[in-house]
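Quiz preparation item.
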């Protein structure tokens, strides 16, 4: 923000657009961003990054340094595969280039992996060789072109034929009037990340009841505060907040990956098991389960793991959120630019969306990739919009009063005037490719994406009218081809039962009260979403005559179609908020600043709001780590069970099954996991609890009532934590139960660690006696 009478000339609209001066007031507010494309030097640097990665891959294959291959292959296939073809396209902004390159990499890897897995022509090495050769050809072409462009640019400068503008070093976009400023924002971001990473490395270990923020030291919080300060500083000084906002979106998952060294959700283990089965079987097994039918992400990662020689794919699952969360923020920002003329507000909308994802924990899952693809499809579909007429920006602007505090992006000016444009064939082809990737990856994302696109078609903001069919048709075809596994997921009785479908999951059998931390971990993010929704509503009411505003509101409402049709395993309400939030965030940041708000007060309000959102993000993502994150010991125990167990063996989980990182190998459907609720539930907990009697009853019921070739039991701290947090059993009682298993000579230790022990029943017949 700045005062109108003190705004530098280069920061005014008439300076950003020379033609505007002749047709508008010289002090129109807000400022208009100058959108600079990547210079040939930056594009050459991007090519050099891929060349370096390919060299490292070659060294990894040619020498015993397999760690280089295990690191470089995932980076190339998941992040850099799309750089070479994108370099051959017209120059573009760095943020857009990054998003297109990464999404192209992910889509290509998923589609190639799916083709191999579906046809059972599993040739990972040969396919990798072909991909690398094609990349080298494209990369060489792009490299030569950029070198020539640099040479021509240099010659032109020497001849004085052109006047160049030095690239801004403090942002991924050049912004007006700041080329001569020091790069405070990137420097602060770099220092903050060093503090966060360094502090996390010092506290590596298992989750504790207090969550991640109870483990981290002052350096971690200082790094977080520095990122917030850098974001606020960037916004109020008209610098790009890209770097600190992207860092904020991923700083928590980065810290969790470093500290815990394991996925933040136990269900990631099941996804790893699907990948291992694809690697072992040379493809998917149709009809086995729904994961094998919608195995796009899993097939792609299986290809990556085979080429890289990664033995434990849990490593990929651990670091996946660190990659995908900033991509979510970036994709949401690119989408927001379709509606917001001010770049700062677009970044704020994207960052806000990424920071409000705590109700939909981002972990290694198809949904995490699905939301990125969905945002990119929407951005592509809305990309044909253009200003209705050349002077529309001037027409919607107003003169600034002397000394008035103005905020870049007042909705009278920040809402980018749009007219319906017809998408080109390249854009339509890209939507079809991304739609196909989405169709083979996730079950519901294509339909929720289609619903939003349908709204924009109605308001003539997306053309041609059949654009949504490019997403819907592949999804319907894929669903029909895999209809045999959908029977248990499509419940006709749930259709139209909106109230029940919107209800969150209920934990049957809980007899104890849930701790306050559980309520806050879900309640606080919900409150933030409500506030964003209220801000979006206020923005809509202020500009309700705009069809763009109506389209955004109805797009935010379109995910409700999910809970009209199904309960989606009692998770429908979470998916509704996930797909509604991007549009709500865009509407919310369109809310105008008060015209006479003092600068210091405005800056303080912005800082307080951002601190609140970040604090809720940190708390919501980490407060339940104790019961949500399976320790490394527990994941190793389940691996030991599945590796050693015979076909048909059963593992007793003396707690809730949701807390067990099981089914993590290719044998996931050859062994059985038996949660406590399958054996009659929990014993009475409290002062009169008898752990020895409980253990003997569980052992007897397990051996007598469950048919298996072998009998195992897993005693893990995470089971006790989950049971206490969700009211099944106190942690103290669970610890007593664990000691009772240890004292029972009938159970022999198979794997032992500080937080998890795996036992095998020595003589089941004696128990049946």
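Solution:
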């Amino acid at each position: 923000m700045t005062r109108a009478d003190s705004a530098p000339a280069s920061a005014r609209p008439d300076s950003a657009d020379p033609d505007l001066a002749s047709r508008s007031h010289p002090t129109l507010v807000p400022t208009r961003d100058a959108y600079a494309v990547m210079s040939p030097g930056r594009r050459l640097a991007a090519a050099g990054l891929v060349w370096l990665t390919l060299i490292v891959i070659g060294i990894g294959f040619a020498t015993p340094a397999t760690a280089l291959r295990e690191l470089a292959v995932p980076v190339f296939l998941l992040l850099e595969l799309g750089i070479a073809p994108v370099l051959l396209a017209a120059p573009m902004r760095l943020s857009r280039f990054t998003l297109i390159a990464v999404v192209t990499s992910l889509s290509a890897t998923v589609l190639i992996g799916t083709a191999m897995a579906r046809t059972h022509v599993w040739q990972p090495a040969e396919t990798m060789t072909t991909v690398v050769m094609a990349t080298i050809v494209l990369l060489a072409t792009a490299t030569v072109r950029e070198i020539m462009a640099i040479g021509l640019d240099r010659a032109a400068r020497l001849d004085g034929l052109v006047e160049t503008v030095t690239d801004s070093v403090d942002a991924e976009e050049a912004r007006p009037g700041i080329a001569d400023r020091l790069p405070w924002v990137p420097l602060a971001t770099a220092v903050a990340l060093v503090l966060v990473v360094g502090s996390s490395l010092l506290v590596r270990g298992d989750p504790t009841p207090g969550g991640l923020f109870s483990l981290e030291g002052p350096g971690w919080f200082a790094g977080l505060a520095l990122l917030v300060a850098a974001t606020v500083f960037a916004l109020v000084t008209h610098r790009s907040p890209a770097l600190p906002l992207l860092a904020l979106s991923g700083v928590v998952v980065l810290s969790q990956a470093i500290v815990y060294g394991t996925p933040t959700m136990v269900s990631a283990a099941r996804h790893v098991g699907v990948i291992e089965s694809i690697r072992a079987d040379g493809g998917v097994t149709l009809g086995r389960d729904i994961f094998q039918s919608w195995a796009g992400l899993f097939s792609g990662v299986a290809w990556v793991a085979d080429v890289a020689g990664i033995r434990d794919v849990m490593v990929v699952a651990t670091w996946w959120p660190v990659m995908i969360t900033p991509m979510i923020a970036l994709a949401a920002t690119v989408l927001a630019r379709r509606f917001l003329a001010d770049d700062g507000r677009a970044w704020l909308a994207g960052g806000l969306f990424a920071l409000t994802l705590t109700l939909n924990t981002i972990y290694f899952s198809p949904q995490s990739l699905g939301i990125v693809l969905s945002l990119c499809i929407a951005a592509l579909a809305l990309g044909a919009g253009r200003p209705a007429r050349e002077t529309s920006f001037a027409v919607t602007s107003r003169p600034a009063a002397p000394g008035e505090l103005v905020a870049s992006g007042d909705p009278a000016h920040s809402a980018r005037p749009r007219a319906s444009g017809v998408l080109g064939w390249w854009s339509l082809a890209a939507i079809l490719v991304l739609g196909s990737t989405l169709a083979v990856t996730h079950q519901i994302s294509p339909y929720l994406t289609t619903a939003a696109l349908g709204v924009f078609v109605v308001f003539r903001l997306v053309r041609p009218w059949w654009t949504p069919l490019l997403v819907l048709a592949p999804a319907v075809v894929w669903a029909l081809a895999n209809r045999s596994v959908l029977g248990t997921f499509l419940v006709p009785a749930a259709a139209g039962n909106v109230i029940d479908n919107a209800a969150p999951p209920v934990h049957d059998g809980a007899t104890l009260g849930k701790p306050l931390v559980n309520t806050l971990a879900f309640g606080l993010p919900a409150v933030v979403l409500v506030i964003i929704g209220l801000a979006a509503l206020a923005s809509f009411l202020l500009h309700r005559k705009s069809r763009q505003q109506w389209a955004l509101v109805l797009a935010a409402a379109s995910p409700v179609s999910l809970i009209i049709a199904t309960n989606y395993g009692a998770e429908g309400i979470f998916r509704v908020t996930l797909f509604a939030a991007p549009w709500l965030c865009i509407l919310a940041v369109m809310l105008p600043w008060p015209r006479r708000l003092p600068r210091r007060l405005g800056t303080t309000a912005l800082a307080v709001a951002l601190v609140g959102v970040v604090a809720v993000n940190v708390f919501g993502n980490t407060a339940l780590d104790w019961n949500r994150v399976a320790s490394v010991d527990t994941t190793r125990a389940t691996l030991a069970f599945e590796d050693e167990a015979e076909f048909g063996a059963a593992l007793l989980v003396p707690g809730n099954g949701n807390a067990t990182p099981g089914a993590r190998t290719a044998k996931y459907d050859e062994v059985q996991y038996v949660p406590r609720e399958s054996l009659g539930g929990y014993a009475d907990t409290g002062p009169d609890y008898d752990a020895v009697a409980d253990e003997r009853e569980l052992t007897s019921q397990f051996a007598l009532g469950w048919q298996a070739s072998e009998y195992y039991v897993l005693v893990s701290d995470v089971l006790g934590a989950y049971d206490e947090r969700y009211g099944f059993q106190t942690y103290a009682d669970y610890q007593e139960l664990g000691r009772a298993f240890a004292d029972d000579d009938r159970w022999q230790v198979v794997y032992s660690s500080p937080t998890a022990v795996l036992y095998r029943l020595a003589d089941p017949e004696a128990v049946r006696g």
